[in-house]
Specification:
The structure holds two protein chains of two kinds. Chain A contains eleven helices and four strands; from the N terminus they run H-H-H-H-H-E-E-H-H-H-H-E-E-H-H. Chain A is about 40% helix and about 10% strand. The longest helix of chain A has 15 residues. By secondary structure, chain A is of the alpha/beta class. The mean pLDDT of chain B is about 95. Chain B is globular. By secondary structure, chain B is mainly beta. Chain B has a five-stranded antiparallel sheet. At the A-B interface, helix 9 and strand 3 of A face strand 2 and strand 4 of B. Strand 3 of chain A pairs parallel with strand 4 of chain B, so a sheet runs across the interface.
Chain lengths: ~210, ~100
């Protein structure tokens, strides 16, 4: 460096987002700059992680669901050890434990993170805003049926509602039920039925035949 | 790290304490009793994340609780359940 600067501009964090206004956001930015300048990681590594998350989408989950619907052995592996099974399709969330919960006629699964907003972003992309809201996080554990009803999901009392609070090191995805009338569909066509909300559990029935 | 102390199906109580550090146990689950739903892997202990080395590796479990046991005025169905992830040092066996 010949211009008298004490740090290397190549290694300075450059935000991709609007200028932060909140003090907490400024502190976060300052911390990232310090970590990069101290050499703990590089700005390029941070960009690569963000790009990976922005490139991920619920379509990845839909591919896994369609495969599970059509390949019982894969479904068994996916439910037993999701992190290993998704590697077969080129996805990798390690070292995170990826856990898939299967909906059945008797059980409806729904995911929340009450402590923060844990979500398998590297696989499913960014979580929806409501998933991060205090309203959803506080109420889903306490009155899940009321919250589900606001998403249009009403369940009889003989269906168990099973809430999964993502409190530590696991990340979750719901395996929705395959809709009737799709027996002769191939995986690509089946995958198109799967929605982001059905992977979180705020949707139960997948619509067939929507134009 | 030794073998898991708890097994699937075992009744466990989640400790009721609030250390002044990051610990990843939601308040509503503290002091509650549930069933070990599955034994998970070994992960860094949240209270010591600040060490930065991911140690000490600690066994993680999923614990399933009955919703009517958690909330005095639970409005859903009696069979509804809730699963949380809890580290081994937060669990004790419950008769």
């Amino acid at each position: 460096m010949t211009d008298g600067h004490s740090h290397d501009h190549e290694r300075t964090y450059q935000p991709d987002h609007p200028e932060p206004a909140a003090e907490s956001a400024l502190l976060g930015l300052a911390l990232r700059e310090l970590l990069i300048e101290a050499g703990h990681y590089t700005a390029e590594e941070e960009r690569a992680v963000i790009a990976k998350m922005q490139g991920a989408s619920p379509e990845n989950g839909a591919v896994l669901v369609a495969r599970a619907w059509t390949d019982p052995a894969f479904k068994e592996r996916l439910l037993a050890n999701g992190a290993e099974a998704i590697k077969e399709l080129g996805f990798d969330l390690s070292p995170t434990e990826f856990t898939v919960m299967e909906n059945t006629d008797a059980v409806h699964n729904v995911i929340v993170c009450t402590l923060c907003s844990c979500y398998p972003r590297a696989l499913l992309g960014m979580s929806p805003a409501w998933y991060k809201s205090k309203n959803y996080r506080a109420r889903l554990v306490r009155e899940p049926r009321a919250v589900l009803a606001e998403f249009g999901v009403t369940l009889d009392d003989d269906v168990e509602v099973r809430v999964h609070d993502s409190t530590a090191e696991l990340r979750y995805m719901v395996l929705p039920q395959r809709p009737p009338g799709t027996d002769d569909w191939n995986q690509a066509r089946l995958a198109e039925l799967v929605t982001r909300d059905s992977l979180i559990g705020t949707q139960r029935d997948l619509a067939v035949g929507v134009p | 790290m030794s073998a898991p102390r708890f097994t699937v199906g075992q009744r466990v109580r989640i400790a009721d304490r609030t250390p002044p550090v990051h610990h990843r146990v939601p308040a509503y689950a503290k002091g509650r009793v549930g069933i070990v739903e599955r034994v998970c892997g070994l992960h860094g202990r949240p209270e010591q994340y600040i060490r930065g080395d991911g140690q000490p590796l600690t066994r993680l479990y999923r614990v399933r609780m009955a919703q009517p046991d958690l909330w005095a005025a639970y409005s859903g169905a009696a069979r509804d359940s809730l699963d949380v992830e809890v580290f081994e040092h937060w669990l004790e066996a419950q008769e």
